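Re-run with default settings, no changes from the original entry. Doing this only to confirm the output is reproducible before filing.
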Amino acid sequence: MAITTAVGRIGATVLAMARTRLELAAVELQEETQRLFGYLAWALAAAFLAAGAVVLAVLFVLVLFWDSHRLLAVGGMTALFALASMFTLAKLRAGLASRPPLLGATLAELRKDMESVKGGAVDGY
């Protein structure tokens, strides 16, 4: 009878640990989703405002140089946009490469649990 009680306690402990880790994963996913939607909203607002500013700046430069150097103005604007797009793409790639892993805290807790279980059997925890 003592073995079945011990197995039952171990099972209950394992289930409680799993439930706690799943709750942590759910909270992390919710936080990450909210963070991503916030970033998306700010990115869309910035893109909209930047597009308006860029259109007005391009029109200003083209009108300013229309009579004297219109081809140079169009070429300069094209080069400027090409450089800006390359810079933006590089920043995007760097940001994606340096982002933290998804569910990092949950995975760290699961690693600790595994080490605890492995060490607990040897150390008598």
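The mean pLDDT is 83. Residues 2-123 form one domain.
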